[in-house]
Amino acid sequence: MATIRPEANPLRANEMANPHHTGLLLFRGRPGARLANAATLEVGTVSYSLWGSSAGARMAAGIGSHGAARVGGADVPRPSAVVMAYTGHADYAANEPPTFVLVGEDDGIAPPGTMARRVRALRHAGTRVEFRTYPHVGHGVGLGIGTSAEGWIVDAIRFWDASMGGSTAPPRE
Question: What is the per-residue pLDDT across 31-48, written as a single tens digit (0 to 9) for each?
Fold first, then answer.
C-alpha cells in the first residue's frame, strides 16, 4: 500500500525550483508499488528519479542498482537518476543510473569518506555522479535551510534534468 502526500515532500517547498510533478510516497509493502500502479496514481514511469535520505537512500540506491524486483517489489523500469543523501550504502552494479550524492562533512552516522568510496566506484564503472559535501552539516540536512547545504535540492533537480536531457530547473542564485 502507498500513500501520496504531496504536502510533505521537500521538493514541494519551492515550486519555482521544481518544474516537475512531485509527491512523497510513503511505502508500506513492496518497493516499486508506485510504478506498478502508475495508471491508478496518474504518474509517469519515464524519466523518473528516486530520492532518499539515510535509510531511504539505501532503498533508492538499491532499486537504482538492481531494480525493485530484486528486493521483493514489482518489476518496473529503473530510474533515470538517483538522489541519495547521507547514507552508508556501498553496493553498486555495473550499469547504475546517474547519481547525485550529498552528505554533511560533520555526519557521524554516514561519514563523507564512506560515501566517497561508493562515488569512486560508481565513477570507475562509468556512472555519471555529482558528489556534494557541505561544511558544518551533520546527519539529516533536510532542506538545508540556513546551512551550507541550502539549495541542494535545486542542484539535484538540475542534475536530474540533465539525466533526462533537459534543462528546466532555474539557475541557482
Answer: 555 566 666 766 666 778
pTM to 2 decimal places: 0.78
Residue 91 CB coordination number (10 Å): 11
Are the beta carbons of 109 and 103 closer than 8 angstroms?
A: no
Please tell me whether residue 106 adopts helix, strand or coil conformation. coil
Alpha carbons within 13 angstroms on the beta-carbon side of residue 51 total 18
3.40.50.1820, 2.60.40.1180, 3.40.1620.10, 3.60.15.10: which CATH number matches 46-164? 3.40.50.1820
Specify which residues 100 forms β-bridges with: 83, 130
Grid cell at residue 5: 502526500
Question: Which of helix, strand or coil describes residue 102?
Answer: strand
Residue 122, pLDDT > 80, answer yes
SS3 of residue 160 by DSSP: helix
